[in-house]
Design brief:
Blueprint: E1 2-6, E2 13-21, E3 24-29, H1 36-42, H2 54-73, H3 79-93, H4 112-129, H5 142-146, H6 152-188, E4 193-198, E5 201-207, H7 208-230, E6 235-236, H8 253-265, E7 270-271, H9 275-280, H10 283-309, E8 320-321, H11 339-363, H12 373-397, E9 403-404, H13 406-415, H14 424-427, H15 429-442, H16 446-452, H17 458-465
Parallel strand pairs: 6-7
Antiparallel strand pairs: 1-2, 2-3, 4-5, 8-9
Helix pairs in contact: 1-4, 2-3, 2-4, 2-6, 2-8, 3-4, 6-7, 6-12, 7-10, 10-11, 11-12
Length: about 475
């Protein structure tokens, strides 16, 4: 049924249709491809102001397409309706009708609202393919046909895995590139000696290259852990329906649906051997989230050290020079700040917070289902989006452009009393301690004191201190 609403002042001309769901009739804009369930949901879930992530839309539509193919092959649905659903999904995957997915990233428990938004859009696109009017659910129904052999309880967890894996396809390569750039810097800085620091206090000399090689090792280990963890997401519980038992699915449906989903997504997806586990537990997501958190701890530490080593240029350490990507101050002319390192710090804080969200949501599952899926997915997609978007900028616009202040590095070594440690095997601990205190008190270097006191020859000192 259609209803026209006209304002004869010429300002508004809106057409509506009336859709029906289990709660009754709902007025829907006539040109909308969503339906009654979505219309009710968008009036309830005003939370973040964020539209659903593109990878979630694509994952869900791919699942619906795969389910339709499986239903056709198992003869659960007639070919005419099934093929219309497949064609509708293909249109959406090609980039059409994306503005019809309106459910916010945080919505109903288990993601039912988003599942139904997807069912309704696909149903109405399929109806047009069949030559029917939108909303004619007798010809093709969002629940009975698009959602056939499915539940939000198995489709949303599967979509979570697929959407996150889509993002991870870009995360791993940008981490590999960062490791490569840090390793290159390590080689470039390999001949630059500097004072080491423990407890933020002077320690024995190291090389700047050695420090950077250690950063590369830490990030590589974090990257490897991420790579291993994401493999768990390849196991999906599609076909488990409401409680993991596979109720209301035809024989052979599950294997066909997952095989089709693997094919269209180009992901190595496999059936989860225990479907009830696949709906109860969100271990795979929390496992990957924890590795992203650990990566953030290392990236944050690296960024902090860059900021400290680049501090100055007069009153700080000034061991590193940072590329000027933009002016550092609106009031102090010429100031250059470590802005990209600061941005990386903030991203790391956000990812660590997101991991806490994922952890709390993962343990909040009860009996046969975890209903906290939307917030977990929002957190995971946000974390991986930030990494894939910003790590390349951090790598190329900051790390690759770092320079070493060789004079400053050498000056710190020469002036630090702690290098007496290298002479203590020959001079003894107590004598070395006295030299340390005298150097601090007088401002004379250890080299000057040892030679002037005749404790060692200049040749002997140079052999040990360089």
């Amino acid at each position: 049924m259609r209803m026209n609403i006209r304002n004869f002042n010429g300002r508004v001309h809106v057409e509506y249709r009336t859709d029906r769901d289990s709660l009754g009739e709902v007025k829907i804009p006539a040109d909308a491809y969503y339906g009654a369930f979505t219309s009710r949901a968008i009036n309830q879930y005003h939370v973040t102001g964020l539209r659903p992530h593109i990878n979630l839309i694509m994952a869900f539509v791919m699942i619906k397409r795969s389910a339709a193919v499986a239903n056709i092959r198992t003869k659960a649905i007639d070919t005419k309706r099934g093929n219309a659903i497949v064609k509708a999904c293909d249109k959406i995957i090609s980039g059409k009708f994306l503005d019809q997915f309106l459910i916010e990233s945080i919505n109903s428990g288990a993601g039912t609202a988003f599942n139904m938004n997807t069912n309704e859009v696909i149903a109405n696109v399929a109806l047009e393919i069949l030559g029917e009017k939108k909303g004619n659910d007798k010809a093709l129904h969002p629940n009975d046909h698009v959602n056939m052999s499915q539940s939000s309880n198995d489709t949303f967890p599967t979509a979570m895995h697929v959407a996150i894996l889509f993002n991870m396809k870009q995360v791993i390569p940008v981490l590999d590139e960062l490791i490569k750039i840090i390793t290159k810097k390590a080689k470039e800085f390999s001949g630059y000696q500097k004072i080491g620091r423990t407890h933020l206090m002077d320690a024995l000399p190291v090389t700047l290259g050695g420090e950077f090689a250690a950063y590369a090792t830490a990030i590589a280990k974090a990257r490897d852990a991420i790579f291993v963890a994401q493999k768990e997401l390849e196991y999906v519980a599609l076909g488990g329906t409401a409680v993991g038992t596979g109720a209301n699915t035809p024989k052979g449906y599950r294997d066909i649906a997952i095989s089709e989903l693997a094919k269209i997504s180009k992901l190595p997806l496999k059936p989860q051997s225990d479907m009830q586990y696949g709906l109860q537990s969100r271990f795979a997501v929390s496992y990957l989230s924890s590795t992203l958190k650990n990566l953030s701890l290392e990236l944050g530490r690296f960024s902090n050290d860059i900021r400290l080593m680049a501090s100055g240029p007069v009153a700080g350490l000034s061991e590193l020079g940072i590329p000027a990507v933009h002016a550092g101050s609106s009031i102090m002319p010429g100031k250059v700040n470590p802005s990209l390192a600061e941005c990386m710090n903030m991203i790391c804080f956000n990812i660590i917070g997101n991991d806490t969200t994922v952890a709390l949501a993962a343990q909040a599952g009860q009996f046969e289902l975890n209903v906290m899926l939307p917030v977990m997915l929002k957190a995971m997609l946000e974390s991986t989006d930030m990494l894939k978007n910003f790590v390349p900028i951090f790598s190329h616009n900051l790390v690759a452009g770092l320079t070493a202040n060789k004079q400053k590095l050498r000056q710190y070594i020469e002036n630090s009393p702690v290098i007496v440690t290298l002479l203590s095997p020959k001079l003894g601990y107590l004598v070395s301690a006295d030299l340390y205190k005298e150097s601090l008190k007088t401002g004379k270097t250890i080299r000057q004191l040892v030679i002037s006191k005749g404790l060692m020859s200049e040749k002997e000192v140079n052999a040990l201190l360089g």
